[in-house]
C-alpha cells in the first residue's frame, strides 16, 4: 500500500483464518514500511494476531477494544490525538500511522449502534488529507446483520484477505449518511415537571438545578461536573444564537441522564452551522469552534437539530463514567 491519502477499509470475517488473512498482512505491510502500528482488538484477536506476527508483534502496540471504544466522540478524539502525536518523525516530517480498530458492537442499544455507525462514517472526514491507514474488522459470526450491512456504506474499501481490497460500490458520502442518521433520531421530548426555563443571566440557575438533579440520582461527582459543563455550554450557545431563551428538559432511565436543550430559534440566523458540528477536532489555533467538540467529549451520546426556527440538542450521560 504505497498510494497517498487516507485509507479506510472494512474486514468482514467469519473465521479466525479470515481475520488473520486480512489483519496480519495489513500489520506486516505497515511494519515493513516503518509505520506506527496500533491494534485495538478484542482480547481473543489480540492473541491470534500476536501469535501470527511472531517476533514482530513486539513492534505493534496492542490495546483491548473495550478499553478504547467507550463512546464515539471520545474514541474519535483519542484516535485523533494518537495520530497527531505520532504523525511526525524526529525531524518533523510526516509519519504514517496504521491502525487495526475493532469497534465494540455487542450490548449496544439502537441509539448507540446508530451513533457508532455514524462514527465509522465520520472517520473518513476526520482523517481526510492524511496518509494514515485504518482497517476495521467485523466478525460476521456474532454481529447483527444490520451492523454488517452498514460497513459497505461507511467504508470506501473492503479488505479481501492476503492484502487484497476492492472498492465498496455502496459507499455513502458522510454528509448523506449522517443526514440519514439524523432522520432516524427520536423526536423532541414532551414537556414535563423537570423542565427548567432559561434565558439571559440564568445560566447559574441552570447549573444549580442540574447539579441538584444529578445528585438526587446518585450520579458520581466527576460525571456531574462533566454534565454541568457540557449542558452549560449548549445553553450559552442557545442564548447567543437561538433567540435568547429556551428550556432545559431533564429525564433519566436506567442507563442515562438525558438533558435536552431547546431554544426558540433566532429571529435572524447568524453564522451558518458548519458541517458535522462538534464531530471533528477543531484547529487548536482557531479562536472559535471548540465548544461543541468539548461538549461531545464530555457527553456519552449527543443528537442535535439546528434550525433557525428552533434548535434541539439532546445530551446523554451514562450514570457511571465511561472511557
UniProtKB/TrEMBL annotation:
One of its GO terms (molecular function) is kinase activity. It comes from the Bacteria. Residues 204-316 form the Histidine kinase/HSP90-like ATPase domain. Keywords: Kinase, Serine/threonine-protein kinase, Transferase. InterPro entries: Anti-sigma-factor_SerPK, HATPase_C_sf, HATPase_dom, MEDS_domain, RsbA-like_anti_sig. Residues 8-156 form the MEDS domain. NCBIfam families: RsbA_anti_sig (NF041045). This is Sensor histidine kinase.
Amino acid at each position: 500500500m504505497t498510494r497517498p491519502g487516507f485509507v479506510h477499509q472494512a474486514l468482514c470475517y467469519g473465521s479466525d483464518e479470515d481475520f488473520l488473512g486480512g489483519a496480519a498482512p495489513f500489520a506486516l505491510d505497515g511494519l515493513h514500511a516503518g509505520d506506527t502500528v496500533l491494534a485495538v482488538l478484542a482480547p481473543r484477536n489480540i492473541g491470534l494476531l500476536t501469535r501470527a506476527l511472531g517476533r514482530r508483534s513486539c513492534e505493534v502496540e496492542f490495546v483491548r477494544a473495550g478499553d478504547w471504544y467507550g463512546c464515539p466522540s471520545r474514541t474519535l478524539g483519542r484516535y485523533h490525538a494518537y495520530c497527531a502525536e505520532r504523525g511526525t518523525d524526529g525531524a518533523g516530517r510526516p509519519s504514517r500511522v496504521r491502525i487495526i480498530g475493532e469497534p465494540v458492537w455487542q450490548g449496544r442499544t439502537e441509539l448507540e449502534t446508530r451513533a457508532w455507525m455514524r462514527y465509522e462514517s465520520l472517520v473518513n472526514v476526520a482523517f481526510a488529507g492524511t496518509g494514515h491507514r485504518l482497517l476495521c474488522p467485523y466478525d460476521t459470526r456474532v454481529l447483527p446483520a444490520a451492523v454488517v450491512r452498514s460497513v459497505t456504506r461507511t467504508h470506501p474499501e473492503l479488505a479481501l484477505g492476503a492484502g487484497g481490497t476492492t472498492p465498496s460500490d455502496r459507499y455513502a458520502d458522510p454528509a448523506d449518511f449522517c443526514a440519514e442518521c439524523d432522520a432516524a433520531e427520536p423526536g423532541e421530548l414532551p414537556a414535563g415537571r423537570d423542565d427548567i426555563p432559561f434565558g439571559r443571566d440564568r445560566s447559574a440557575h441552570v447549573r444549580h438545578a442540574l447539579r441538584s438533579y444529578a445528585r438526587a440520582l446518585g450520579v458520581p461527582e466527576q460525571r456531574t461536573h462533566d454534565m454541568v459543563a457540557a449542558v452549560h455550554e449548549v445553553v450559552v450557545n442557545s442564548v447567543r444564537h437561538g433567540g435568547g431563551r429556551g428550556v432545559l428538559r431533564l429525564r433519566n432511565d436506567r442507563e442515562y441522564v438525558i438533558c435536552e436543550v431547546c431554544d426558540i430559534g433566532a429571529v435572524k440566523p447568524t453564522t451558518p452551522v458548519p458541517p458535522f458540528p462538534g464531530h471533528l477536532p477543531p484547529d487548536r489555533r482557531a479562536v472559535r469552534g471548540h465548544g461543541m467538540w468539548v461538549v461531545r467529549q464530555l457527553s456519552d451520546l449527543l443528537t442535535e437539530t439546528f434550525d433557525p426556527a428552533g434548535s434541539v440538542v439532546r445530551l446523554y450521560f451514562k450514570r457511571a463514567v465511561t472511557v
